[in-house]
Design goal:
The protein is of the alpha/beta class. Helices cover 27% and strands 30% of the residues. Strands 1, 2, 3, 4, 5, 6 and 7 form a seven-stranded antiparallel sheet that branches. A five-stranded parallel sheet has the order 8-12-11-9-10, with helices on both faces.
């Protein structure tokens, strides 16, 4: 019910904040950039939410740990259907002082069918001219920067959908958020274990031998992705990414 409500109102994230010392815990959503607590999901017992998270974790792909661990940071993803349409949920949990805080990013997987143009997203004519001129240039980088929920990933996917079909696009995402036509998309869900960084490095080395023209690097969010961005940009291909 939480997932259905979030998808139907256009929320970008579902937050489940467990308060281990309290009988009830907190459910919130990110909606239009605001952190809200709908009345219908308040006063849910802490034990009920803990049990729910433990069951959800059983379906997580690429997660670190066989079971949900309230005392550890965990990452992964899973897919559910809402109104017959698939939704990817990206799990990120923090072992906070009061108890685990789980953030589930809600990502409709059929967004490619309704991908808005830059104009529909609200970009002004002179802004579109600059972005589209950069798109026509071979080499270099385009970076969308902004706050959580500001539309970075949507803008990036819209732009990538406009890349000419005679250019090979390869993506490296954590995980794939939007399905982009004519792109070879790679979903790499990095766990927090040591060997996951080796997996990322191996994928990057293979990527550089793929004879592509354009690369989408989902997000620059740590030293590892920062180095990947510099490496790819220096190789002469066009690179597209986001950053907070």
């Amino acid at each position: 019910e939480m997932l259905e409500w979030g998808v139907r109102v256009g929320a970008s994230d579902l937050h489940i904040n467990i308060h281990l010392r309290d009988s009830e815990s907190e459910v919130r959503f990110t909606l239009s950039g605001r952190y809200i607590a709908p009345e219908r999901f308040q006063r849910i017992p802490t034990r009920t939410l803990l049990d729910m998270l433990a069951v959800i974790w059983m379906d997580i792909r690429g997660g670190n740990g066989a079971v949900f661990d309230p005392l550890a940071e965990q990452q992964g993803s899973f897919v559910r259907k809402v109104d017959g349409k698939p939704v990817l949920l990206r799990w990120a949990s923090l072992a906070a002082e009061r108890g685990p805080s789980v953030c589930l990013r809600l990502l409709p997987r059929e967004a490619v069918l309704h991908m808005p143009s830059l104009e529909e997203l609200g970009y002004l004519p002179h802004q579109r001219e600059v972005i589209e001129s950069s798109l026509a240039t071979q080499g270099g980088a385009i970076i969308f920067s902004g706050a959580v929920g500001s539309g970075k990933s949507t803008s990036l996917a819209s732009l990538m959908s406009a890349v000419p079909t005679d250019r090979k696009i390869v993506t490296l995402e954590d995980p794939v958020e939007y399905l982009i036509p004519n792109a070879v998309q790679n979903s790499l869900v990095r766990s927090l274990r040591e060997t996951a960084h080796d997996d990322y490095g191996a994928k990057l080395r293979t990527l550089k031998r793929s004879a592509m023209n354009d690369v989408l690097l989902g997000e620059i969010r740590d030293l590892e992705t920062g180095r990947a961005f510099l490496d790819l940009t220096g190789s002469g291909v066009s690179v597209y990414t986001t950053t907070h």
